[in-house]
Amino acid sequence: MDSLQCFSKESILLLHKNKLLLPLISSEIIKKKTSSISLTEEEKQKCIEKLLNALNIGSEEEKEIWLKSNYLDQEDFFWLATRDLLIKKYCDQKFESQIESRFLERKSELDIVIYSLLRHKDRNVINELFLRITEKESEFGEIAKQYSQGFESKKRGVVGPIPIGKAHPSLVEILKNSAPGIVQPPIKLLDGYVVVRLESLDKAVLDDFMREQMKEELFKIWAEKETEKLYKIILSNSSSKTNIGEG
Predict the structure, then answer these.
(1) What angle (nearest 5°) sits at the alpha carbon of residue 246, between those of residues 16 and 18?
(2) Closest alpha carbon to 190 in 169, 208, 207
């Protein structure tokens, strides 16, 4: 990549050792791949105004001061301002046709779940609490608030709404096969025991929001692959007698 040819072998190895090479390569790849994307003058102006407002810059003089203090030029500023929109447009062009297959691949992890959780390290205690809940002696929320040994105790045991894929794998299958309101028997989980009750499970749908999420995921996967590929080439070249831009 042309923008990286100015680095010597020693510079590359120094960046690598300080874990700066990967993010640098990633940034340059994204910049190069989005360079062919066209923006209207209106889009450019909106992006610039948005960044100026975010930086609380109200004049050209203030902008110049900011650029100098951050060792940037006008081209760098324009890239910072338009980067997100350029990436979005690039995703629209490159990944639109892959959205549905990505969604189907990920759908089972994207359903939104809310559940109540009670956890305790003592098996006898969790069994007793389970009975108190199922026999209607106590409310799940009150029991969780008083006895649960996790973060959920602060919310009366309620977890979510979250994508079901973010729940512990042992809970995912239980939640998928549960009916709302049914308290499931205690199970062993990590270093303790848990009782879980499904509150709601909303199936993921491929709406506009989800389409954007799928494109972002596809872009991230693509960028990571491209970065890793170039990263290996650059490191290999830096270990030889030639610099990056040679050969």
Answers:
(1) 5
(2) 169
Structure confidence by residue, pLDDT tens digits, 137-172: 999 999 999 999 989 999 999 999 999 989 999 999
Is the pLDDT reported for residue 59 higher than 70? yes
DSSP string, 99-163: HHHHHHHHHHHH-EEEEEEEEES-HHHHHHHHHHHHTTSS-HHHHHHHH--SGGGGGTTEEEEEE
Alpha-carbon distance 167 to 109, whole Å?
Answer: 9
Nearest Cα neighbor of 179 from 196, 158, 154, 160 is 196
Cα(211)–Cα(63) distance, integer angstroms = 36
Please give the angle made by the CA atoms of 214, 220 and 225, to the nearest 5 degrees.
Answer: 130
Which pTM value belongs to this model? Answer: 0.74
Burial, 238: exposed, middle or buried (Cβ in 10 Å; 0-12, 13-18, 19+)?
buried
Q: How far apart are CA 85 and CA 80, in angstroms?
A: 10
Stretch 51-71: mean pLDDT:
95
pLDDT value of residue 190:
87
